[in-house]
Every structure is written in C-alpha cells, then in structure tokens.
C-alpha cells in the first residue's frame, strides 16, 4: 500500500516539474562568413551584345583567395565541375573553348572582394545559371541567371543641320555598351546615276570601366561637304 502511494507522489511531482519547466531558447546562429551578393540576380542580355554580372563576396578571415572561378551550370548535375568552367583567373586554359576570350573579370584583385564578370558577344546558349567559387576553398550556393533574347537595339545616326559648302559630320553609334568584337559599320553613299560608294574601317571605340560596370561605345563618323546647288539666271 505504501509503495503505491509513494509511486503516485513521485509521478505527481514529475508531472508538475515538467509542466513548470520553461522551454529553452536555442543558441543564436552564427552568420556564415561566406556570402555573395548579385545585383541583380537575373539579367536579360541581347544576342550579339554582352552581359555584365555584378557581384561582391565575402569569406573567412583566415582565408587568402588565390583564384576566382566562374561556372556555367548544366541543366542537370553540379555546377562546380571542371567541364563547366567559363573563366579561371589562375589557369585560363581551364575555361571551356566557347568562352575563352569572351569572359573576363572586372576586378582581378581578389582582396577587393569583387567578383563581377563580363561575357561578350552573347550567344543563345549562354542563357542559364552561373555560379562563382574560390579555388580549393568554396563554391557559393547562390546562382545568377542570364536570359538571352533577340537583338532589338538598332544603330543611331546623328545628323547635324546641313549647309551648302560647309563641312558636316555624321555620327553612327552601334548598339550595345560592352566591349567585344567591334561591329562593322559601313557608310553607303548613293550619288548621281545610282553610283554607290562605300566607306568602311572608320570605327572609333570609347571605353569606360569601374568595379561594377563597363561601357564601351563603338561609333563611326563621316565628314563631307554638301555641294552648292547650281543656280540659273
């Protein structure tokens, strides 16, 4: 009898202790030192022009990055594989053949923690996701996406007021603001009697780069003197 009473008391005390026990607050999580930020995370580029991936990254304090690597993710499988490398800052030969000479970092000094990259002469198969990593250390899980659409931008021509007998300069600016293969700009002059004259190889390049963007303008100028109209008396 006493044994049953003693067991009942113990059970009652255990239940009361359990009910009064406050839930423990989980310890605060430590933020990872390995972060990456894309601005923006989705990019739309036009075929034949370029795409600039603007990004910054951070890493553990005791780590010294030696090389930056960008990967083009396949539709299936892991991104960070040798066959997916599009640029390798330490060993350029590791890049896929189709991306060599088309991809470059905007900042090669990794201590500045800038991973921005430019892809020139955009092709349809450049569409997809891309991932950034540091050699022998870490591949960042976040990805950036590039969408490629048909070229819609057109050249623009600046025409000043024309005066008989006064030199005038026409300026044709090609679409796009990126480096890469310079466009072929051809001036065509249709004279009297349907005679056609073409002027080529007169393209000038203006380039400006900073740590987050790059702009390159290709333009051509044509200077001529409008003839004076003959008058009859």
From TrEMBL:
Species annotation? Coregonus suidteri
Q: Where is the Ig-like domain?
A: 155-233
Gene Ontology BP annotations: cell adhesion
Q: Provide this UniProt record's keywords sorted from A to Z.
A: Membrane, Signal, Transmembrane, Transmembrane helix
User: What taxonomic ancestry is recorded?
Assistant: Eukaryota, Metazoa, Chordata, Craniata, Vertebrata
Give a GO molecular function annotation for the protein: sialic acid binding
Protein name per its UniProtKB record: Ig-like domain-containing protein
Q: Describe its membrane topology.
A: Single-pass membrane protein
Q: Does the entry feature the keyword Transmembrane helix, yes or no?
A: yes
Gene Ontology cellular component terms for the protein in this record? plasma membrane
Location in the cell: Membrane
Coiled coil residues, start to end: none
User: Record's InterPro entries?
Assistant: Ig-like_dom, Ig-like_dom_sf, Ig-like_fold, Ig_CD22, SIGLEC
Q: Is Transmembrane helix one of the keywords? A: yes
Q: Name one Pfam family in it.
A: Ig_CD22
Source organism superkingdom: Eukaryota
- Identify the stretch annotated as signal peptide in this record: 1-19
């Amino acid at each position: 009898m006493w044994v049953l009473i003693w067991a009942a008391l113990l059970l009652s005390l255990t239940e009361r202790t359990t009910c009064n026990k406050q839930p423990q607050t989980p310890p605060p999580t430590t933020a990872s030192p390995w972060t990456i930020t894309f601005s923006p995370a989705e990019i739309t580029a036009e075929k034949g022009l370029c795409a600039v991936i603007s990004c910054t990254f951070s890493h553990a304090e005791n780590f010294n990055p030696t090389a930056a690597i960008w990967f083009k993710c396949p539709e299936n499988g892991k991104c960070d594989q040798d066959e997916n490398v599009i640029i390798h800052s330490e060993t350029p030969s590791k890049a896929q053949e189709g991306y060599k000479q088309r991809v470059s970092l905007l900042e090669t000094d990794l201590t500045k923690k800038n991973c921005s990259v430019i892809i020139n002469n955009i092709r349809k198969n450049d569409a997809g996701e891309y991932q950034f990593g540091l050699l022998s250390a870490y591949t960042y899980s976040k990805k950036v996406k590039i969408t490629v659409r048909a070229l819609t931008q057109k050249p623009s021509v600046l025409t000043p007021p024309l005066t008989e007998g006064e030199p005038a300069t026409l300026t044709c600016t090609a679409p796009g603001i990126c480096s890469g293969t310079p466009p072929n700009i051809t001036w065509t002059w249709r004279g009297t009697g349907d005679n056609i004259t073409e002027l080529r190889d007169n393209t000038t390049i203006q380039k400006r780069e900073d740590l987050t963007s790059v702009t390159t303008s290709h333009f051509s100028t044509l200077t001529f003197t409008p003839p004076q109209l003959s008058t009859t008396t």
